[in-house]
Design goal:
Blueprint (H helix, E strand, L loop, with lengths): L1 E7 L2 E6 L19 E14 L2 E14 L3 E4 L13 H11 L4 H8 L3 H16 L9 E10 L3 E8 L4 E7 L3 H11 L8 E4 L3 H10 L4 E4 L1 H23 L4 H8 L2 H5 L7 H13 L1 H17 L4 H18 L2 H10 L3 H5 L9 H16 L6 H11 L6
Parallel strand pairs: 2-4, 6-9, 9-10
Antiparallel strand pairs: 1-2, 3-4, 4-5, 6-7, 7-8
Helix pairs in contact: 1-3, 3-15, 4-5, 6-7, 6-10, 9-10, 10-11, 14-15
């Protein structure tokens, strides 16, 4: 029986009474239970109708089930102990896929924590269980959780572009639970892409005996920019203290030197050419930056080795201390660099994922619950179907 009590101040109140002709079902075994112990009234939120928020006053019955005892009757549209209907829950779940929790709370009138709990349960049901599937190639990277050098590590299936696991920290101990979950599949991993992180490297080698570590081009070039190009640029600017206009040009050329030439505008390309023509050390490191990239795109390991030897020779001939130091530091990682000729992998996909993670954080104004945050990340990257 349905009765509309009132519709005032944006609220629609509806009272629901059980039909006298209906036989209630046990809330546990779902068997018909005609013996009614008592009745109770519950206030339940229903999905909005037009611009009205709907409140249901539901009279529920407690039955004496011969098998289960005294149990609240089963209602298909109302989960046990819930304060919202099933339809309301599905609506909230659909909204949280698209909007931040604060906006969903404003739209529905539900409390922020209630909406978060609904979304958390949905995420746990969809992506909470670990399921790597038939994985052969992995990529792993770190991203910042908060300010203050707090990081998390994300591991993806490089072929299906699916986030497999997210863990707090960036040490060997951080990765260990992932490999325990992976179990016997560790032997089938053939390649893992990463930055030059010795902790990741050692843990992969300890758990995946057949895997080849592939060092990522993006991170090496970023390191070259910080350790070599920035250092040479600062040294050249300091050498031009007496020529203030020229010093200002060199000091302000950081992003001009780091950016790829294809991404420069016409005026920027001209300014770059003039700068390189006027400053031989900057021209040297700029040319060697492009030559360093060529090692990753070598068609074979032999060709990659030849390109490395040529690059190393030019670096030593330059006589620039930052360049010599970089060449010495990168030498122990050469195997992982040359492996890119066999496994053309990189973590540029992870850089895109990191950017998406930043968007998720901004939408929520940060996450205090890291477990919930990790579930949001996994749900955002379900991967390509195979």
């Amino acid at each position: 029986m349905v009765a509309v009590d009132s519709a005032t101040q944006g609220w629609l109140t509806i009272r629901l009474e059980p039909s006298l002709a209906s036989t209630p079902l046990c809330g546990r075994c779902f068997a018909p239970s005609p013996l009614i112990h008592d009745r109770r009234e519950r206030c339940i939120r229903e999905r909005d109708i037009l611009d009205l928020r709907v409140m249901l006053h539901v009279c529920t019955r407690r039955v004496d089930c011969l098998q289960c005892g005294r149990v609240t009757e089963h209602l298909s549209w109302l989960p046990p102990f819930a304060r919202i209907t099933e339809r309301m829950r599905l609506w909230v779940e659909a909204l949280t896929r698209l909007l931040p929790i604060s906006q969903v709370a404003s739209l529905t009138g539900l409390h922020w924590h209630s909406i978060k709990e609904i979304d958390r349960r949905r995420l746990e049901a969809e992506v909470g269980a670990f399921d790597a599937g038939p994985v052969r190639r992995l990529a792993m990277d770190e991203f910042a959780l908060h300010k203050g050098h707090r990081y998390a590590t994300v591991v993806i299936d490089a072929e299906r572009k699916r986030v497999l696991w997210v863990g707090y920290g960036r040490s060997r101990e951080t990765l260990r639970p992932f490999f325990k979950l992976l179990g016997a599949q560790c032997e089938h991993i053939e390649a893992v892409a990463m930055d030059m992180n010795s902790a990741f490297d050692l843990e992969v080698k300890a758990n995946c005996p057949n895997a080849e570590v592939v060092y990522d081009l993006f991170h090496v070039i970023a390191r070259f920019g910080r350790d070599v190009m920035d250092r040479v640029r600062v040294d050249q600017a300091n050498a031009l203290r007496q020529d203030k206009p020229a010093r200002a040009v060199v000091k302000g050329a950081r992003w001009l030197l780091l950016r790829n030439r294809d991404n420069l505008k016409a005026g920027q390309a001209v300014a770059l050419d003039e700068l390189l023509a006027a400053n031989q050390p900057l021209a040297t490191v700029y040319v060697l930056k492009d030559a360093l990239k060529g090692i990753w795109y070598a068609p074979s390991v032999r060709e990659g080795w030849r390109r490395w030897r040529a690059w190393q020779r030019h670096a030593h001939e330059s006589g620039l201390e930052p360049l010599l130091r970089f060449a010495k530091n990168i030498r122990p990682y050469l195997r992982g660099i040359l492996a890119s000729a066999i496994y053309p992998m990189h973590t540029s996909l992870l850089e895109g994922i990191n950017n998406r993670i930043k968007v998720i954080k901004r939408m929520a104004y940060g996450f205090r619950d890291t477990a919930y945050f990790f579930l949001k990340i996994k749900a955002a990257f379900p991967g390509d179907p195979r």
